[in-house]
Amino acid sequence: MNPPFGEVSIPSKQYIEEVYGDTKGNVYQTFVECFQDRLVPGGFLGIISSRTGFFLAQSSDWRERILLRLYRPLLLADLGSGVLEAMVETAAYVLRSITEEEDRNLTLNIVPKLLEIPLDRQKCFSIAKYQKYRGGLKRHQATQELKRLCETHYISLIIGHFIRYKVNIIKVQKSEVPSYLPYPNLICFRLLEEGDKEGALIDIGLLFDF
Questions:
Q1: Which residues of 176-199 are buried (b: 16+ CB within 10 A; e: fewer)?
Q2: How many CA atoms, within 13 angstroms, populate the side-chain half-sphere of residue 115?
Q3: What is d(CA 193, CA 55) in angstroms, rounded to the nearest whole number?
Q4: 123 to 47, 58, 131, 144, 167: CA distances (angstroms)
Q5: DSSP of 105-149, one letter per residue?
Q6: pLDDT (0 to 100) of residue 45
Q7: How far from 61 is each of 12, 84, 195, CA to CA, in Å?
Q8: What's the rounded mean pLDDT across residues 58-73?
C-alpha cells in the first residue's frame, strides 16, 4: 500500500487519537497499525511511505509497540527523495504479522506480570490499572491483551458498574514458559544517493533472489 501521510484530517483527528494513540503523529503510521488486524497470522504487508517513522524520536512508540511487537520487519529499502511526485522522502518495507505461535508467546510473556498489578478489595483490577502496570499501553492495546488473557483463562471478566478483571492465580502460577522463537533477520538497503533507484532495487532483488 501507499498510504496517505502527514497530519490527520480534522474530522478523523479525535478518532485516531483515541483509537491509535501510538501512531497519531502521522496518518501513514496509523494505516500500518490498523492493517495488523486485517492480516492472517504470518501474513505480509508491503508499504511505501515516508521514511520519518524509522528515525524520528517522536515515532519511537510506533517502532517499539507496533513494528517490533505486532509485526516482524523483514525488508527495508531507505529510498529518500525522487520516488513519489509528492515532496516526501520515502522508504519501502515489508512487514510480517506475528504467527499464532508468536502471538501465544506474547501472551505467555505477559502472564507473570499479572501478579504485580495492585488489586481492589474484591481482588480485581481495572483496565486503567492494567494500562499503568503494562508501561502505559494505549486503551485499545490493553483491551487486545486482556481479550487474549480472557480467552486463555488467565483472567476472568467481571461485569459491574465498570469493567474489571480477576486473576486466575493458580493458572497463572502454572503457566508455561514462553518458547524460544528467533527474531527473523531484517535486510536493509540504503539507496539515498542512488540516481536509478528502480534499477538498483532490481539488481538487489536478483542478487538476493527476491
A1: eebeeeeeeeeeebebeeeeebee
A2: 10
A3: 18
A4: 45, 37, 17, 22, 8
A5: HHHHHHGGGGGGS---TTSEEEHHHHHHHTTS--HHHHHHHHHHH
A6: 96
A7: 20, 26, 33
A8: 89
- Cell matching residue 106: 506474547
| Residues with Cβ within 8 Å of residue 183, at least 6 apart in sequence | 72
Question: Quick one: average pLDDT of 36-47?
Answer: 93
8 Å CB contact between 70 and 36: yes
Q: Give the model's pLDDT for residue 86.
A: 77
Distance CA 21, CA 151 (A): 25
pLDDT at position 161 is 78
Alpha-carbon gap, residue 107 to 114, rounded angstroms = 11
Q: Measured between alpha carbons, how far is residue 14 from residues 18, 19, 24, 37, 121 in Å?
A: 6, 9, 10, 21, 35
Query: Which pLDDT score, from 0 to 100, does residue 210 have?
Result: 66
Which candidate, 70, 76, 20, 77, places its Cα nearest to that of 42? 70
- Taking the C-alpha atoms of residue 122 and residue 158, their distance in angstroms, rounded to an integer, is 10
pTM of whole model > 0.90?
no
Give the mean model confidence (pLDDT) for residues 60-67: 88
63 CB-near residues (< 8 Å, 6+ apart) = 53, 54
Count of other CB atoms within 10 angstroms of residue 136: 12
| One-letter amino acid of 22 | D
Cα gap 208→210, rounded to integer Å: 6
In the block, residue with C-alpha cell 513519489: 84
Could you tell me which of 75, 65, 71 has the C-alpha nearest to residue 97?
71
